[in-house]
Amino acid sequence: NPTPIIISNISNLIPIKLNHTNYLLWKSLFEPILRGHKLMQYIDGSLPPPAPTDSTFAAWYEKDQMLLSWINATLSETALPYIVGVNSSKQAWDILNRRYASATPSHVMFLRRQLSRVKKGSQSMHEYLQQFKELTDQLAAYGSPVSDDDVVLCVLDGLPPSY
Question: Which domain of life is it from (predicted)?
Answer without folding.
Answer: Eukaryota
